[in-house]
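Researcher: Last one for today. Full complex below.
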Amino acid sequence: MSYIGIIITYVFIQNFILVQFMGLCPFIGVSKNSESAIGMGMAVTFVTAVASVVCYAVYTYLLVPFDLTYLQTISFILVIAALVQMVEMVIRKMSPSLYKALGIFLPLITTNCAVLGIAIINIDEGYNMLESFLAGLAAGLGFTLAIVLMSNIREKLEMTPVRRVFKGVPIAFISAGLMALAFMAFDSSLLTNLHLV
Amino acid sequence: MLTAILSAFLVIAGMGLVLGLGLAIADRKLAVVKDEKLVQLEEIMPGANCGGCGFAGCSAYAEAVFKGEAEIGHCAPGGAALAEKMGQIMGLSVDVSQEKMVAYVHCRGNVDVTGQEFTYKGMDDCNAAYLLQAGPNACKEGCLHLGSCMKVCPAQAIHRDEKGFIVVDPGKCIGCRKCTTVCPTGVIRMIPASATHVVACSNHEPGGKVRKECKVGCIGCRICETRFPSSGCHVVDFLSSIDYDGVHDQIADAAQACPQKCIVER
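Model: Here's the assembly. Have a good evening.
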């Protein structure tokens, strides 16, 4: 698969939130306003991209030579946890307001299955280092796309007269469902038609 | 077999060691320096995290005071003593004469005296009951008696008395206003802790309607206001309220004269 094909696959066709249902927790939790949604998206994109490369390196140069591939899950979790801690420290230093807005969802990137998911998908698909990086980047961008769209919808919903029983989270989940419906339009025939396979 | 176990152990332990060391160095390099004054402010806060000041918690309020975004003296649990201490740290003089405010349930209605439109058998929660036609009471501004305020009170100052009324203990109330926020009908409002009398009704409807809905409601007859000009009572929208900041020396007489007896002694 070409590089553009990988990007289109993970941004649209296999969008982590709206198609694969991974990383839903910050998707609802940090999508109340677009500013923190962009911040969260950027943080996740950074983590998925770097985690993909590091996990690929750990798998190929450490686990395969020692014949320890059965340890991939635990070693990936170790790497991701350390990376997220690092990102948290950087954000705390660089932007205290973003640090506050992200709150508990920042350390929760550690257990965000989107991050572990992309690391394992990279290995399963047999991507090389560059392809892994692109897949990780695209997965993060897909996450960012979904969460930013969602935050814009929710900002509009704040201004809309919504029935009291649907106010807040219920209408947010309904909107998320409708967005997932819209993303069903992207399927793998898109790649064939664009001659990217 | 043994080498397999050993290599697995060594690889994972080695990774943990390298990553841990990396994080330790990064933590030193990226440490955030806190101002000494801010640390001092955070230390003297009561730590109830009640949110009564309008900030997310005690440390958030301390930070806002430190940055000059908030004024000293919004902390109800800390009261005047804390305001003075915070003033010393910040080098500001503060007016600590502000009277302590406590919550009060402005309603004497219950199933016996207030008309019931239906029997509510749902969740034990005022807001849940309020979703159904604003609750079973005919009076939509009265107490629903389901005790949502009791659940949110951080000081356990609200209890149900033997007759089933919801009562706020003024001694225990820290004035955080959590109950006034959670109450769907707005029947809980703040009064000065030293207040002797209260208008125990919240119904803003005209007298005739109130009489149909509740036997103990304020009918807006204006006797307290017109016959006792210095009682401090003012009737707005058919509901009397006491102006605690002004003169209110005739309030005991007004309470006597109230035909509905809804000006009550505390």
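The CA atoms of residues 36 and 101 of chain A lie 6 Å apart. Residues 129-159 of chain A form the longest helix (31 residues).
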